[in-house]
């Protein structure tokens, strides 16, 4: 099988995708500067797959660093690009940091691909490119709205950069728009381990349950939803990871040149925050003494995906449900 470069391979989704690639017979190489991870996922990957993955500790904002990786691995045939910062609040406080890192690293990788003649890319995008969605579920034809934060804008800009390149370069490009990845590898050997206070709900839940956080709040109980809490679309990280491998197969076997296609990755159904908390309690037999707090500025009442295109075109399928998401996340938490 071909060799795939995974940028941000030591991160949450990147590490799970490395596992999926190896299980499907791909050769892999990782590039991660370890600014938002510590590299420990590589040991977990080795235990799961029996393969030691080489990681280049490289700052991909530097075009020369990106080009060196391709020069040392002339057999790279495809790239899966994760390398990005993703904390919404941090992006609001430090927008230039996000533009420099997220869009700068993508620019370097695209330039190195063009120089080396690599023509296959899967881009880690986000449902945040839709902004405030007027009609749910969101489909790939839903108009892209004004980004709600600089992080979202970097993802929208990234998609636009790729589309502009696709118009002139004979490559094949797929952008995967994630909704809310959650959970961990079922072995408990790799999972989500953000530095500092987690930005996402599930690691907040597991850290609170483990006594690592002093409190857990539900932000708002008066939204126009079935129980008053926000609705989001949670999808198991291993299902997300497999979608990247499905996308590579689609790119290689079915896509024409100079194309950039987009796919939603979500469960296709919304889950309220309170329903998610109850799913954790059921899956793990743990009572969560959370509090109900006020709304947070900028939170949307609801967003969830129409995932039919990914299922029909990529042949992608969802294998893990909400309670398996919560049980795997808790299993991982107990190893951290």
TrEMBL record:
Cofactor(s) annotated in UniProt: NAD(+)
Enzyme class (EC, first level): isomerase
UniProt-listed Pfam families: Epimerase
GO molecular function, one term: UDP-glucose 4-epimerase activity
Pathways per UniProt: Carbohydrate metabolism; galactose metabolism
Record family assignment: Belongs to the NAD(P)-dependent epimerase/dehydratase family.
Protein name, UniProt field: UDP-glucose 4-epimerase
């Amino acid at each position: 099988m071909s060799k795939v470069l995974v940028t941000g391979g030591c991160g949450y989704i990147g590490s799970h995708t490395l596992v999926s690639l190896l299980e499907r017979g791909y050769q892999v190489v990782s590039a991660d500067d370890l600014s938002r991870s510590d590299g420990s996922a590589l040991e977990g990957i080795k235990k799961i797959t029996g393969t030691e993955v080489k990681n280049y500790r490289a700052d991909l904002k530097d075009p020369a660093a990106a080009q060196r990786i391709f020069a040392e691995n002339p057999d790279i045939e495809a790239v899966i690009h994760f390398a990005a910062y993703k904390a919404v609040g941090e992006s609001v406080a430090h927008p230039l940091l996000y533009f420099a890192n997220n869009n700068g690293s993508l620019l370097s990788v695209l330039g190195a691909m063009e120089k080396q003649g690599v023509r296959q890319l899967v881009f880690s995008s986000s449902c945040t490119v839709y902004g405030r969605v007027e009609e749910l579920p969101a489909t790939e034809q839903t108009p892209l709205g004004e980004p709600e934060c600089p992080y979202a804008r970097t993802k929208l800009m990234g998609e636009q950069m790729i589309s502009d390149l696709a118009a002139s370069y004979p490559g094949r490009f797929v952008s995967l728009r994630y909704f809310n990845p959650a959970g961990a590898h079922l072995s408990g050997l790799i999972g989500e381990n953000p530095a500092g206070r987690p930005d996402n709900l599930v690691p907040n839940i597991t850290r609170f349950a483990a006594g690592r956080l002093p409190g857990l709040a539900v932000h708002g109980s008066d939204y126009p939803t079935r129980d008053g809490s926000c609705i989001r679309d949670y999808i198991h990280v291993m299902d997300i990871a497999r979608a990247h491998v499905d996308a590579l197969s689609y790119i290689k076997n079915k896509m024409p040149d100079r194309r950039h296609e987009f796919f939603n990755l979500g469960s296709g159904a919304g889950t309220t925050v309170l329903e998610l908390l109850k799913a954790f309690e059921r899956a793990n037999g743990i009572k969560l003494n959370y509090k109900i707090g006020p709304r947070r500025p900028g939170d949307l009442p609801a967003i969830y995906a129409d995932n039919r295109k990914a299922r029909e075109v990529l042949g992608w399928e969802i294998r893990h449900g909400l309670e398996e998401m919560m049980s795997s996340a808790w299993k991982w938490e107990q190893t951290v």
